[in-house]
C-alpha cells in the first residue's frame, strides 16, 4: 500500500481549484491526471517581463509590462482581427491586436478610458508598435502580480503557462514534506535542497539547476533501487544448475566457425548457467553480429543439462523464422516446436503435451509461450529476442514469479549507449558481440530526394535482372496503421506494374497471418525479387541474397530504427546498398542525421548521436512499448546521475535489504512516489 503521506499527491487533478470540465481535455493532452503529475510537470524556461513606464521603439522584440488605456477600437469585416488602440502615460500609441473576431469580448477586456496593466511581446508593424494577443491584461491594482521572471511550461491547446503555474502552485501547497532518502553526504556535496523545497524552487525558477538535479536524481535513484530489488528477488531464489557436456553442441554442423566475440559470449553464458543462481544476462550485438548462433548454443546447453529452453520473439514473422532456422540446424540434435497465438486445436494440444512431458526440448514462439495454460516439464532457459518490444518490469517479473526461475538471456540489437544500459537494465550482466562475422562489407548508404523515385525504380530493375533481391520499406506516414498499409500497398502496386505480379511480395501489419507467411516465404525462397514492407521487417529477418534496401521517407525514422532496417542487408558476402529517400525540405537536424547514416555503419556511434539529437525515448523504443523511463531526468543528465544513484541504491540494499530502517523507509516512499510499485511488492512478500 502506498503510504498515506503521499495521498494528497495522488489525488485526482480535479481537486485543484480552477480545474473544471473545460480543463479536462487540455490536461489530458498533457497527461496530467493527478496532482503529482502537475507537480512533476516542470517548467522548461522563463520569460522576463520588463516593467516599463513608457512605450519605446527600442523595446520591439521584448516582452514588456506596462499600464495602457484603450482609446478606440477598429474591427475588420469578417474574420479579421480586432484592434484596440491604446496609449501609455505619455500618450504614445500601441495597437493591441486580437484575432478571432470577438470584438465584444475585446471591448470588455479593455474598456475605453480605463487603465489596464498589459503584458506581451512588443512588435514593430511598419512604423507602428503593436502587441498581438497580450498574455496578460489586468486592472492596475493587480500590476504587482505581473513583471519579472515567469516560468514557461510545456503547453497544450487550451491551457497556458500561467494556468499551469497556478496549478503547480496548488500542487506544491498540497505536497507533504517527505523523509530524506538521499545519502546525506551526497546531498551535502551537491548542496541539494530537500524534496519539497526543490519542487517549490524549480517551479519558481526554472533555472535552478540544484533543484532540477535533485528531483532528477530522486527519479533515477528510485529506478535503480527498483531494478536492484527485482534482481535481488530473482537472485534470492535458487535456480537450476545447468551444466552442458557439449554432446549436442558438438554435433552442430556449422558452415563457419564462431567469431571470437561469439565464443566469448557463449562462454560467459555457459558460466552463468552452471551457477545455481539464475542468469540475468543481456546480449548486445549490432544487427548481423550473429546473435542467433549464441542463442542456439545457450538453448543447447540447457538441453544438455537436462532442461528445456524457450525462445521468445516479438512478432509472428520472427518466431516463424527462428523456428525454421533452428529446426533446420538442430535436426536430429534436439526437438524443436513452435507456439504462437495462431496455433489452435489439435496441433496446439500436442505441443502442450510435448512441453509437459518433456518430449519437446526447445520451444519457439511469441508471448503465447508464457500463457498460464502452458506448462513445462523443466524450463531452464528463456531467451528473449529483440527485447525492446517488451517491458522491463514484465521481463524481470517473469523470472521473479516462477517457482524455480529459469535462466534469462535478453538479446538486443538496439545499440544502447553505455550510460543508458544501466538505466534500462539495471544490474544485468552484459555480453557484447563487438565483432562482425568475417567477410562483411560495409553497406554503402546513399541519400536521395524522393523526386528521383523513377531513377531508383530503374536501379531496382537492374538489381533484379542481375539476380539480386531487395527490400522496399514504406514507413508510417501518419500515426495510423491504415495509412502505413496504404502506402505499402500502393508502392507494391506500382512495382507490380513495372516488374510483374510474381516479382513483388508484400507484408504489412494488417495482413492475415497465413497470407503474411506465404508472402515472406515467396521472398525468402527467392520466388519474389522484391519485398515491399512496412516496418514489420525491422527486426531479425534474414535473407542473405537481398543486398539492396530502399527506405522511403527516411527522414521520419529514428536513426536507431534506420540502422536496424539497414541491417536487413549486408548479410551475405556481396556488396550491399541502402538508398534513403528523403522529402524535399529538410530541417538542419534531419540533414545532419541522414548524413550520419551515410557516413557510419557503427551502430553504437549512431545511437550516441541519435541520443544527442532526439532524446532517449526514441532510442530505447519506449515510444513503441508505451513504457516511460524518466520524466524528470533528461537524457543528458543521466551520465552524471546514474553512477551515484546506482552505487547509493546498492549501498542501501546491502545495509538494509528489507528497507526497514529510517533511510530504507524513506526510500520506500521514493519508490511509491515514482510508481515503482512492482519492486515494493517484492519487498513485502520477501
Ligand atoms: P543478428 O545478430 O542480427 O540476429 P544473425 O544471427 O541473424 O544476426 O546472423 C546474421 C548472419 O550472419 C546470418 O546469416 C548468420 O548465418 C551469419 N553468421 C553468424 N555467425 C557467423 C560467423 N561466425 N561467421 C559467418 N557468418 C555468421
Ligand atoms: Mg536476430
TrEMBL record:
Matches recorded under SUPFAM superfamilies: Nucleic acid-binding proteins (SSF50249), P-loop containing nucleoside triphosphate hydrolases (SSF52540)
Q: Which UniProt keywords apply?
A: ATP-binding, DNA damage, DNA repair, DNA-binding, Helicase, Hydrolase, Nucleotide-binding
**Enzyme nomenclature, EC number:** 3.6.4.12
Per its UniProt record, what InterPro entries does this chain match?
DEAD/DEAH_box_helicase_dom, Helicase_ATP-bd, Helicase_C-like, NA-bd_OB-fold, P-loop_NTPase, RecG/Mfd, RecG_dom3_C
Q: Name one GO molecular function term.
A: hydrolase activity
Record domain Helicase ATP-binding: where: 272-433
Which stretches make up the Helicase C-terminal domain?
Answer: 456-612
Q: Which residues form the signal peptide?
A: none
Tell me the protein's name: ATP-dependent DNA helicase RecG
Q: Lineage of the native species? A: Bacteria, Pseudomonadati, Pseudomonadota, Alphaproteobacteria, Sphingomonadales
Amino acid at each position: 500500500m502506498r503510504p498515506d503521506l503521499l495521498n494528497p499527491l495522488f489525488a485526482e487533478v480535479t481537486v485543484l481549484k480552477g480545474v473544471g470540465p473545460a480543463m479536462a481535455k487540455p490536461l489530458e493532452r498533457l497527461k496530467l491526471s493527478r496532482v503529482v503529475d502537475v507537480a512533476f510537470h516542470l517548467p522548461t524556461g522563463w520569460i522576463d517581463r520588463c516593467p516599463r513606464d513608457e512605450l519605446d521603439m527600442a523595446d520591439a522584440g521584448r516582452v514588456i509590462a506596462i499600464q495602457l488605456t484603450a482609446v478606440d477600437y477598429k474591427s475588420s469585416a469578417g474574420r479579421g482581427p480586432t484592434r484596440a488602440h491604446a496609449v501609455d502615460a505619455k500618450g504614445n500609441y500601441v495597437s493591441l491586436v486580437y484575432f478571432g473576431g470577438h470584438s465584444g469580448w475585446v471591448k470588455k477586456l479593455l474598456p475605453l478610458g480605463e487603465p489596464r496593466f498589459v503584458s506581451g511581446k512588443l512588435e514593430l508593424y511598419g512604423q507602428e508598435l503593436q502587441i498581438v494577443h497580450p498574455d496578460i491584461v489586468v486592472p492596475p491594482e493587480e500590476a504587482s502580480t505581473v513583471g519579472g521572471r515567469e516560468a514557461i511550461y510545456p503547453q497544450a491547446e487550451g491551457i497556458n503557462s500561467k494556468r499551469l503555474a497556478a496549478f503547480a502552485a496548488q500542487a506544491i501547497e498540497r505536497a507533504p514534506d517527505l523523509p530524506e532518502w538521499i545519502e546525506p553526504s551526497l546531498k551535502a556535496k551537491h548542496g541539494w535542497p530537500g524534496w519539497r523545497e526543490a519542487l517549490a524552487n524549480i517551479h519558481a525558477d526554472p533555472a535552478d539547476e540544484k533543484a532540477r538535479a535533485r528531483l532528477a536524481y530522486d527519479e533515477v535513484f528510485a529506478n535503480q533501487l527498483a531494478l536492484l530489488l527485482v534482481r535481488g528477488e530473482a537472485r534470492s531464489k535458487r535456480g537450476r544448475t545447468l551444466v552442458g557436456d557439449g554432446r549436442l553442441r558438438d554435433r552442430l554442423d556449422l558452415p563457419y566457425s564462431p567469431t571470437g566475440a561469439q565464443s566469448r559470449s557463449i562462454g560467459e553464458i555457459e558460466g552463468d548457467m552452471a551457477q545455481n543462481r539464475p542468469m540475468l544476462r543481456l546480449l548486445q550485438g549490432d544487427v548481423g553480429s550473429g546473435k542467433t548462433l549464441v542463442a542456439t548454443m545457450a538453448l543447447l546447453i540447457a538441453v544438455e543439462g537436462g532442461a528445456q529452453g524457450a525462445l521468445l520473439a516479438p512478432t509472428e514473422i520472427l518466431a516463424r523464422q527462428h523456428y525454421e532456422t533452428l529446426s533446420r540446424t538442430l535436426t536430429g540434435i534436439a526437438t524443436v516446436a513452435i507456439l504462437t497465438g495462431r496455433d489452435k486445436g489439435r496441433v496446439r494440444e500436442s505441443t502442450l503435451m510435448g512441453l509437459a512431458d518433456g518430449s519437446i526440448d526447445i520451444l519457439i514462439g511469441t508471448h503465447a509461450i508464457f500463457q498460464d495454460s502452458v506448462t513445462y516439464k523443466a524450463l531452464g532457459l528463456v531467451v528473449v529476442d529483440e527485447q525492446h518490444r517488451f517491458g522491463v518490469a514484465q521481463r524481470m517479473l517473469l523470472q521473479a514469479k516462477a517457482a524455480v526461475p529459469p535462466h534469462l538471456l535478453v538479446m538486443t540489437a538496439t545499440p544502447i549507449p553505455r550510460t543508458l544500459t544501466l538505466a534500462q537494465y539495471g544490474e544485468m550482466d552484459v555480453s557484447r558481440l563487438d565483432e562482425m562475422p568475417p567477410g562483411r562489407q560495409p553497406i554503402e548508404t546513399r541519400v536521395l530526394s524522393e523526386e528521383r523515385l523513377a531513377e531508383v525504380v530503374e536501379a531496382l530493375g537492374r538489381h533484379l535482372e542481375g539476380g539480386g533481391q531487395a527490400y522496399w520499406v514504406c514507413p508510417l506516414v501518419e500515426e495510423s496503421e491504415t495509412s502505413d498499409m496504404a502506402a505499402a500497398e500502393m508502392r507494391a502496386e506500382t512495382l507490380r506494374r513495372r516488374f510483374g505480379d510474381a516479382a513483388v511480395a508484400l507484408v504489412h501489419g494488417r495482413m492475415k497471418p497465413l497470407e503474411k507467411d506465404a508472402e515472406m516465404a515467396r521472398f525468402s525462397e527467392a520466388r519474389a525479387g522484391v519485398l515491399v514492407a512496412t516496418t514489420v521487417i525491422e527486426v531479425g529477418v534474414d535473407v542473405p541474397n537481398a543486398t539492396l534496401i530502399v527506405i522511403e521517407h527516411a527522414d521520419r525514422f529514428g536513426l536507431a530504427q534506420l540502422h536496424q532496417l539497414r541491417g536487413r542487408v549486408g548479410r551475405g558476402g556481396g556488396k550491399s546498398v541502402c538508398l534513403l529517400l528523403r522529402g524535399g525540405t529538410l530541417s538542419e537536424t534531419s540533414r545532419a542525421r541522414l548524413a550520419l547514416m551515410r557516413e557510419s555503419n557503427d551502430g553504437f556511434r549512431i545511437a550516441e548521436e541519435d541520443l544527442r539529437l532526439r532524446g532517449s525515448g526514441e532510442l530505447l523504443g519506449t515510444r513503441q512499448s508505451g513504457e516511460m523511463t524518466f520524466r524528470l531526468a533528461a537524457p543528458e543528465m543521466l551520465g552524471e546521475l546514474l553512477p551515484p544513484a546506482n552505487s547509493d541504491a546498492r549501498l542501501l540494499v546491502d545495509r538494509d535489504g528489507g528497507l526497514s530502517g529510517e533511510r530504507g523507509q524513506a526510500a520506500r516512499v521514493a519508490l511509491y512516489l515514482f510508481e515503482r510499485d512492482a519492486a515494493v511488492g517484492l519487498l513485502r512478500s520477501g
